[in-house]
Design a protein that fits this description.
Elements: H1 14-23, E1 32-33, H2 35-42, H3 46-59, E2 62-65, E3 69-72, H4 77-101, H5 104-122, H6 126-144, H7 147-169, H8 173-189, H9 193-218
Antiparallel strand pairs: 1-3, 2-3
Helix pairs in contact: 1-3, 2-3, 4-6, 4-7, 4-8, 4-9, 5-6, 5-8, 6-7, 8-9
Length: 220
């Protein structure tokens, strides 16, 4: 790594700092995560690092290997696509339920997120756009009231977050996904559950296609 990811540790928990380092690619798939090195790099105790690795293993970002410690879990293209297909089913359900349940103040909030996403795209801010993307999907889950689906989706997101971040960084990808997100917002805020589910399904179909395209481009 060109710079120790420990520089971010003071701004958040050890879990968040290690997670961010994995998402950004500072720790690569199958790389060993040595507790002593992480403790020094993040300025944290060994106990804090150990607890963080256990939590990240529960999220699916890290895997613990018997007698060999922990390493960054590698998620293949095939698994990333399977995760996205499961997300499609559950998030379409959540979008439909959110359209049925959404209150006026929540609709105002979602539309504000949409405006912020537009500004991020216009300002060429893919990192900010990626964060808003995650916020939008999380709020749709929360508004839907589907707690079981939300719990499953949160775990799936942990396993797939690195692929999603890489997609957000691809030139032109935010410009493609922005109108898809705006369509989801509009359908939910207009109390149209069928249209909301269809818009979410269309968006995640686009994500799956983008994953395949990114993988094909990386092989050239």
């Amino acid at each position: 790594m060109s710079e120790s990811p420990g520089a971010d540790a003071a701004e958040g928990s050890v879990v968040d700092a290690i997670r961010d380092a994995i998402v950004r690619g500072e720790f690569v798939p199958n790389q060993r995560l040595v507790e002593a090195d992480l403790s020094a790099g993040f300025g944290a105790s060994r106990a804090s690092v150990r607890s963080a690795l256990i939590e990240l293993a529960n999220e699916g970002l890290v895997e613990r290997v018997q007698n060999r410690g922990a390493r960054v879990r590698a998620v293949s293209l095939e698994e990333a696509i399977e995760i996205s297909e499961v997300r499609m089913a559950l998030e379409s359900l959540c979008a439909a339920k959110a359209a049925e349940r959404i209150a006026q103040e929540e609709a105002t909030e979602l539309r504000r997120v949409g405006e912020m996403m537009k500004m991020a795209v216009n300002g060429m801010d893919p990192v900010g756009y990626s964060a808003l993307n995650e916020m939008l999907h999380r709020r749709v889950r929360e508004i839907s009231g589907q707690r079981t689906a939300a719990q499953v989706l949160q775990r799936l997101r942990g396993q797939n977050v690195r692929h999603q971040f890489r997609l957000a960084m691809r030139p032109g990808r935010p410009q493609v996904s922005l109108p898809e997100h705006l369509a989801i917002i509009d359908a939910i805020c207009s109390h149209h559950p069928v249209e909301a589910a269809a818009a979410m399904e269309k968006h995640l179909s686009s994500v799956i296609e983008a994953l395949r395209e990114a993988d094909a481009a990386s092989r050239l």
